[in-house]
Design goal:
With 187 residues, the chain is mostly helical. It contains 8 helices and no strands. Helix 4 crosses helix 7 and helix 7 packs parallel to helix 8. It is globular, with a radius of gyration of 16 Å.
């Protein structure tokens, strides 16, 4: 494992929970492609909410959402009394949660003048679309790409079960952070 790959795994230790080694490597590569293609010098410098980096970073949100997604998926998979006959692809949920906001590195300008200003690309496409493109570039399969892209679509948008879990994990963590920090607003 290269130093850059170790850096990504240190930021997102849940990567090691992905059972499929090929998917695990592609998730790491997706973050490295995003960093290379962005104006950012480090992944952890990216705030979750532009202009409010001191409250929570994108890495903290991603780790929180991933932990929530993993807990829900594992509960469904291990408890037949919770969801009889339902099976969730845990690797897809983990990868989708870990990458749901990867496109923010391309959506927003780098840290040296970061006030929430969007890049020229970010003015044309939102992070879920940019993230889906990054995932395709990294060679991830269509279901993981779908999880990334679908997490920001309207509620009426048709999603796979795994994509819905990624969306819920993102929202559950977001609502927890808004509750902890009322100064964060999405309106």
């Amino acid at each position: 494992m290269t130093e850059q790959e170790k850096y990504v795994v240190e930021l997102f230790p849940q990567i090691q929970e992905i059972a499929n080694s090929e998917v695990r490597q592609k998730v790491i590569n997706c973050w490295l492609i995003a960093l290379q293609d962005s104006q950012w010098n480090s992944i952890e410098a990216m705030p979750w909410v532009p202009g409010l980096a001191e409250l929570i970073t994108s890495v903290q949100h991603t780790v929180g959402a991933t932990r929530i997604g993993m807990a829900i998926a594992r509960t469904i998979n291990s408890s037949q009394d919770v969801a009889p006959g339902v099976s969730v692809d845990l690797d897809t949920v983990i990868a989708g949660c870990l990458l749901h906001d990867v496109g923010k590195l391309l959506e927003y300008t780098g840290p040296e003048n970061h006030t929430g200003e969007k890049t020229p690309l970010g003015k044309r496409m939102l992070h879920h679309i940019l993230g889906a493109h990054l995932a395709i570039k990294a060679g991830l399969d269509a279901e993981i790409v779908h999880c990334i892209e679908a997490h920001r679509e309207p509620e009426s948008y048709e999603r796979s079960y795994e994509a819905q879990l990624v969306r819920w994990a993102d929202h559950l963590h977001a609502y927890a952070m808004v509750r902890a920090h009322p100064e964060i607003s999405f309106r």
